[in-house]
Specification:
By secondary structure, the chain is an alpha+beta fold. It is 32% helix and 15% strand. Strands 1-3-2 form a three-stranded antiparallel sheet. A hairpin with a 3-residue loop joins β2 and β3. α1 packs across α3. The protein is elongated.
């Protein structure tokens, strides 16, 4: 028995559980999901030509991350938006709601 050899490719114990890919939620739910969903809800309800003014000091994330998250979520929801920012506020509005002057 001391001379028995183990197979070269022995099965290692699995460290991680296996799941079916079909059972996975493939949607993105980032850390700013609730904030961004709230912004999109208000955009849908905003009258044409109105922009949301979002104070950067109150959202707690950097402008670039906020802009990116809002653009990603709006594209996924089929809403075309425009954005603008100054040192204090982030502005977002529906592009189709622009008032032409």
């Amino acid at each position: 028995m001391a001379n028995e050899q183990k197979p070269k490719h022995s099965q290692r114990a699995m460290r991680y559980r296996r799941v079916d890919v079909a059972d996975l939620d493939r949607g993105r739910r980032g850390k700013h999901h609730d904030l961004v969903q709230g912004i999109l809800e208000e955009l849908r309800a905003a009258p044409p030509g109105a922009a949301l003014e979002i104070p950067l000091s109150e959202v707690g994330i950097e402008l670039a991350n906020l802009r990116s998250a809002v653009h990603r979520a709006s594209a996924g929801s089929g809403i075309t938006i425009e954005t603008l920012a100054d040192e204090r506020n982030f502005y977002v509005w529906r592009k189709d709601a622009l008032s032409q002057k």
